[in-house]
Specification:
By secondary structure, the protein is mostly helical. The chain has one domain. It has a two-stranded antiparallel ribbon. Strand 1 and strand 2 form a beta hairpin. The longest helix is centred in the middle third of the chain and has 14 residues. The two termini are 24 Å apart. This is GIY-YIG domain-containing protein. It comes from Subtercola vilae.
């Protein structure tokens, strides 16, 4: 999601609810979430976290984004696809 402050990547089993939580906390505006791209990811939470990590990486890594942490930390890198 692109906001006036930068780009944010996230995942949830209920993305609309999660985005609204961000609005309610003041992290994003209703305008921000209206323009958010949404992608379906088959599988459960781990599959979503892997997809999120791949997207974060494709955008230059968390240092280039509003994201504070990587969804797949160093201790879980074995979950990433071969060749990662």
């Amino acid at each position: 999601m692109t906001t006036r402050d930068g780009v944010y990547v996230g995942q949830s089993n209920n993305i609309d609810r999660r985005l609204q939580e961000h609005v309610n906390r003041g992290k994003f505006t209703a305008e921000d979430i209206a323009g958010a791209e949404r992608f379906g990811v088959p599988g459960g939470k781990t599959a979503r976290e892997i997809a999120e990590q791949l997207k974060v990486d494709s955008l230059g890594g968390k240092g280039q984004l509003l994201n504070v942490v990587n969804p797949i930390g160093d201790s879980r890198l074995d979950l990433m696809p071969e060749g990662y």
